[in-house]
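User: Could you check the structure of this?
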Amino acid sequence: MPFEFERLKIEDLILVKPKVFGDNRGFFAECYKKSDFVPNGINVDFVQDNHSKSSKGVLRGLHYQQSPYAQAKLVRCIKGRIYDVAVDIRPDSKSFGKYVKVELSEDNKYMLYIPEGFAHGFVVLSDEAELIYKTSAEYAPEYDSGIRWDDKDLNIDWGIDFEPVLSEKDKNLPYLKELK
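Assistant: Sure, the predicted structure tokens are below.
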């Protein structure tokens, strides 16, 4: 099998480690293969692919879409290095308000599967980083939402010792306790 699927400490979050075949020409790795993903708990119909580029110190998030446009995501960093964070915002979950942080990079080629019901964000650790990610629902601006990256109740350890670069939108997101 060209993938290793590692269940993380929050139920339904899965770190996907592709098998990389390298030689003097470079490398080859499969990025998605439905017949491997489905039996390993990722049975999602991905409908949109996104590509973002950010500079060192940029923090994007924590973002999610509300139902009926909630999104599952399969995130990977194709250039540079990031800390990727997923926060459980499922009201009935035993891990509500808890988060997982993983390093994704062009070197490790790992992917993070984030199901619906999670807020997602990342901070760029390298000079720049590029991410591509699949989503299970198309972007719907009227259902776009988020949570402040520095919410004291979440107490996320972003692993940085600098003030992150934020969008105006992200500076003004609500705290988790303010969500309906």
